[in-house]
Amino acid sequence: MNTGDQIEFKWIDAKLIGSDIVSFRLEDGALVRVKVDINRAGVATTYTNPDGSPCYNVTANIMVTTIPPDKKFKAPNQNFQAPKKPPAGQVT
To the nearest whole percent, how much of the chain has pLDDT over 70? Predict the structure, then answer.
């Protein structure tokens, strides 16, 4: 049922069942959070698998966040510099 070099898909909606975040506790106490989101899901309209079942195309985003046991992190100092004050007597 393939029409040339491309397979045509029909875009279908994906509904979240349960939580989109899975958490793991590592041996050293760190917490790893994995968040998954479906970008696009489709079912082939011009092709079926050899066993006759539908062929799906799904793309996903996966975001991994690691939180160390002490819950500390560092950021560059320039992100937190206070604005410069004008010299005394100068109006801005």
Answer: 90
